[in-house]
TrEMBL record:
Residues 72-250 form the IclR-ED domain. Residues 11-71 form the HTH iclR-type domain. One of its GO terms (molecular function) is DNA-binding transcription factor activity. Gene3D superfamilies: 3.30.450.40, Winged helix-like DNA-binding domain superfamily/Winged helix DNA-binding domain. This is IclR family transcriptional regulator. PANTHER family: HELIX-TURN-HELIX TRANSCRIPTIONAL REGULATOR, ICLR FAMILY, HTH-TYPE TRANSCRIPTIONAL REGULATOR RV1719. Keywords: DNA-binding, Transcription, Transcription regulation. It comes from Novosphingobium piscinae. Coiled coil: none annotated. One of its GO terms (biological process) is negative regulation of DNA-templated transcription.
Length: 250
């Protein structure tokens, strides 16, 4: 049987977590950790752990230094039987592979990174492979760039202020000004491209996914650069944009 002190500590932790969620949800523009600590009288060490855990579980979203409600809270509000982002995107990912025979993936935002949560592989011997659960920075995959471009300016500025633009290949965009110029072009085109920016010899195309106007993830298709012709790129763009439209209309 749990001790009384242990039970009280568990209750205190649960109440502190609920207070934290309620406070963050009530801040329309998000809130920085220091303001949370002061408002709720939570020690910084305890707060850092709580925030990291809630971001990891997707109940909070981190944009730069500010925290806001995450997609996990939306899942809690969703009626029983409602379709999750992953379940809704699964047939779209499968359909992309059937149409293009190139590797297709679903990406979800995870703090300062994106996570590959679904992947369907091409059947071709030479193909791109990425495992579900893989986390990568926003700036080096087409799906990540598509999500950055879909953010409003305030959220984009906050996030870019915190991102480390690490280099993975000679083509990785590591200059913030250059990345911002690329994001402006992605916003105009509605689609993002990468060429040998994370994995040498692999090019990609990505589009953001929206649900009720909110960015919830991205779809991406990646293929060996050696067969990434203009005609092939145009086919991928058309299929991705059709899939994104289908997702938003559901």
């Amino acid at each position: 049987m749990a001790s009384r002190s242990g039970t009280q500590a568990g209750v205190k932790s649960a109440l502190r977590t609920l207070d934290l969620l309620e406070f963050v949800v009530a801040q329309p523009g998000g809130v920085v950790a220091q303001d949370i600590a002061v408002a709720l009288a939570i020690p910084v060490s305890s707060l850092s752990y709580l925030l990291a855990t809630l971001v990891e579980r997707d109940y909070l979203r981190r944009d730069g230094r500010r925290y806001g409600p995450g997609a996990g809270l939306d899942r809690l509000r969703r009626p029983a039987g409602a379709v999750s982002v992953v379940d809704q995107a699964r047939p779209l990912v499968r359909g992309l592979v059937q149409q293009l025979n190139e590797t297709a993936s679903l990406f979800l935002p995870r703090g300062h990174e994106i996570e590959t949560v679904l992947t369907e592989m091409s059947s071709q011997p030479l193909r791109y492979a990425i495992e579900p659960g893989t986390r990568t920075p926003f700036h080096c995959l087409a799906g990540g760039k598509a999500m950055l471009a879909a953010l409003d300016d305030a959220r984009l500025d906050a996030l870019l202020g915190e991102l480390e633009l690490a280099r993975f290949t000679a083509n990785t965009v590591t200059d913030e000004a250059a990345l911002r110029r690329e994001i402006a072009e992605i916003r105009k085109a509605g689609v993002a491209f990468t060429r040998d920016e994370y994995t040498p010899g692999i090019s990609g195309v990505g589009v953001a996914l929206r649900r009720e106007g909110e960015v919830v993830g991205a779809l991406g298709v990646a293929a060996p650069t050696s067969r990434f012709t203009d005609a092939m790129r145009d086919r991928i763009v058309a299929q991705l944009q059709r899939a994104a439209a289908t997702f938003s209309a559901a």
